[in-house]
Amino acid sequence: MTGAATQAGPEARLTGAGIHKSYGSLPVLNGIDFSLTSNEAVGIIGPNGAGKSTLLSVLSGATPPTQGTIQLNGSDVSDLPARDRAAHGLVRTHQIPKPFSGITIFENVLVAATHAGARRKGEAYDLALDALDVCGMLPVANRPAESVGLLDRKRLELARALATSPRLLLLDEIGGGLTDAEASELVDTIRSLRARGIGIVWIEHIVRILLQVAERLVCMDAGRIIAEGDPETVMTDAQVVSAYLGGAPA
Amino acid sequence: MTIHRWTWQSKLTFTLAAALILILALVPAFASDSVNERLTVLFIYVILAAMWNAMAGYGGLVSIGNQLFFGLGAYMTIRLADAGINPFAAMVLGAVIVAGLSWVLSLFMLHLRAGEFAIGMWVLASIAHLCVNLDPLIQGETGTSLISLNAYAIADRRMMIFWAALIGMVGLLALLFAVLRTPSGLAMQAIRDNEEAADSIGVNPMRTKRLFFVLAGFGTAVAGALWLAQVSAFQPKTYFSVQWTAYMIFMVLVGGLGRFEGAILGALIFFAAETWFAATGVWYLIGLGAAALLFSLLLPKGLWGWIATRTGVSLMPLGYRVHMETPSK
Q1: A143 lies in which domain range?
Q2: Does the structure's ipTM exceed the value 0.90?
Q3: Number of CB pairs, chain A paired with chain B, less than 8 A apart
Q4: Closest approach of chain B CAs to the CA of A4, in angstroms?
Q5: Which of A224, B33, B35, B99 has the most crowded CB, counting CB atoms within 10 A?
Q6: With contacts defined as CB-CB under 8 Å, which chain A residues touch B189?
Q7: A44 phi and psi, to 5 degrees?
Q8: If one looks up domain B2-323 in CATH, what number appears?
């Protein structure tokens, strides 16, 4: 294994300023200011419908903002599609896994490695194998993606994103539906990505596992950021307790 | 850890295929005229199935209007031959023009989704049919013939058409196989399975789908031109008929959607059914429909899909296998 996905180079930075997003007359994001560097792991929490996944979609380029700008390493990428942002080191995973069912696990990851991660064939193979190794998926590399269970589908989302050689990784509820043991494995994997110098945004409802990774916590409610900062402080913030934890302190 | 793309079965298959192609190339020297003509038909069916499979099987671009390319391939050949170009050169040049037209059509057709795309292609085929009817050279539904082929003696002509069809089939299959083994081939399958996810990891869906759309347009136009050369007559309603796409769908469905070997096997099955049962008239068509229905219900992956799933055999492998260097416990 070459460790081909280990990141180096100058710090990467993603900045979103004044982001609004509406679907028809329904506002989902109401003026979000957000930033992430490759030197940190940021957790995002909030009740259902707070706009967390929409924020990830807007930041990753899956959907355009109604208003506001997104900058990646100082360049305005607001109009760039997701594929071009992936090529510049910004990639996301999906809350509901979206495997390429008709091809194998290795081929799923290789698509990412050849299109956003590497230019040469050998380099792409190394990237794909390394991503599978990091996510513990080498034993199922030759299995069709349609044949694996939920845990492996979640891992595949992560492996595929990792094979793009990301500097900044946006994770959308990747721990949902996993057992405690599986979630612990996932935490170890994500910690190893941090050690590689990959900046992480992680949306998660299972706050317990999120706090094992996040160095900064953001709480959203009704399309706004209502608290941000040190996880311990955010978790005891009165607005967060009220909006997210139903009035009971963490 | 190493990555492998070939198996011993695939190496053997390609060796046998090369030998078979050489034998087929010699067929006109010893076979009867009717055998030559029937084999030419088979080669055209293989092209049609492979090209429809390229779009629908690998890219999820299910079309019921590929008769558009088939009809235009024949029409362009008629037009270019009428302008004084050698008929065989006109067949190639006509297909290239159809490929160019496919590129233009892709600019808006590929924005359509699923059923919209399928029906949209049929609509385009019908529009092309009407436009071709307006050409005075074609004389409406009366049609015309590729009369410039009459410059060749009948025996020479039959042999040349046979070889053209063989070269066309082998060339197009080789081209499709090569394209499917590139990163774009894998990307096309990813787009088929989930376009949004493919886009999120760097794949350009529009560019990739366009490549396959244009390739299928070119290949199906070659088939149309070859059919014209074979039967000589050009009547628009025959070439722009949806029955051609129905045959393509039957062949791929029975052989195996999204399987390279499946399209070839499906063409062989269709060819055999036509050879043995076409004389039964309407019962032949009822039989085809019933067979398609049964395959959909009982073998949804087609005959080759069923064989490959049960045996793990891949004669013409497009994918990748990871081999662990140390045996796993």
Answers
A1: 97-165
A2: no
A3: 98
A4: 14
A5: B99
A6: 100, 102-103, 107
A7: -120, 125
A8: 1.10.3470
